[in-house]
Amino acid sequence: MLRVGFHTNQQTSAPPTYDAGHTFHVMKGWWADSHTLPSWPSRQIRTPYDMHQTHKFQWLAEELPKVRHQGIVLLADTDTFVQCSPAELLERFAEMRSPLVVGAEARWWPAPDRHNNPWAGSTKLRYPNSGLAIGTPEAFVQLAHAQRTLQHFPCCPMFANYTSNVYSNYSSTLHSCMIDDQLCVQVALLRGVEYSLDTQAKLFLNVGSTSPDELVQRHSDGRWVYVPSNTTPCVLHFNGHHSAKVRMNALAPLAKKVLGTWVVRPSVPAATIDAQGANESKKIKTTNASS
């Protein structure tokens, strides 16, 4: 059984039913419904939403024992399309041979270090994105602990202010930290967490760091292909702000027509299909790619 966690207080759509009645088992919750969020100076909070989302791994680590789930868990943001069955997603995760796989993107956001890059490499997708991760319950607990034990969590140290090449030995002061869910994940991953990045988009694609030409729809089954690696990601994450959500809304009607594709969030009101969305629709391409 594959359980999917959404840290949200918004509506999500029901997942499809696949062969033999299999489906995704959904768990939803919102940390602030049962916990008091800490008070911080506004200059250290990137957005109010980030204060909430910084706690999503804490929420998951607290919820998993309640449901007594010992299998694999997918933690995803809601601005996503799922285009694999639970069985296919689990099979691809097993091929990664890692207790935790985190989605990668092309841009180091939000606080890159200009002098030290722990994710240097030749692949375009190489920087951790906090919107998609899959792993064992133990791996998520390890990541949540690595975050929670940061000196000023949920205010996490910005990479540009690190004083050592060894990222686990950082100097974090209140004036050099920021409350941002992605920053806090990136910092925690470098504190002894065992994980892999999905640099080939076999499981995940963070669409916000791709160009329209890099994501095309395959003729044979309607699923979306990431052109640079010729892979069919199981989950598409439309990370980013207005333009990414407009792109998601433009593609959603096509995705809903594909058998077995799960458009998690029915719509994003802040990104209605306007003139910009119409332009995105015109950029949609199809392909006969086979993988």
Describe this structure in words.
By secondary structure, the protein is an alpha/beta fold. The chain contains 7 helices and 15 strands. The strands form 4 sheets. The protein has a 6-stranded mixed β-sheet, with helices on one face. The C terminus is likely disordered.
Number of helices: 7
Average pLDDT over all residues: 86
Low-confidence stretches: 161-171, 270-291
How many β-strand runs?
15
| Subunit arrangement of the protein | single chain
The residue fraction in helices comes out at: 25-40%
Largest sheet: spatial strand order: 2-1-3-6-5-9
What gap, in angstroms, lies between the N and C termini?
25 Å
Shape, per Cα inertia axes: globular
User: Hey, roughly how much beta strand do the residues contain?
Assistant: 15-25%
Radius of gyration in whole Å, from Cα?
19 Å
Q: How would you sum up the major sheet?
A: 6 strands, mixed
- What is the element string, with H for helices and E for strands? EEHHEEHEEHEEHEEEEEHEHE
> From the helix content, strand content and strand pairing, which structural class follows?
alpha/beta
Protein name: Nucleotide-diphospho-sugar transferase domain-containing protein
Organism: Prymnesium parvum
Compact description:
The chain has seven helices and 15 strands. The chain has helices at 48-53, 56-67, 86-96, 137-148, 181-189, 242-256, 275-283; strands at 3-7, 25-29, 73-76, 80-82, 100-105, 127-135, 156-157, 177-178, 196-198, 204-206, 215-218, 224-226, 235-237, 262-263, 286-287. Strand 11 and strand 12 (224-226) form a beta hairpin.
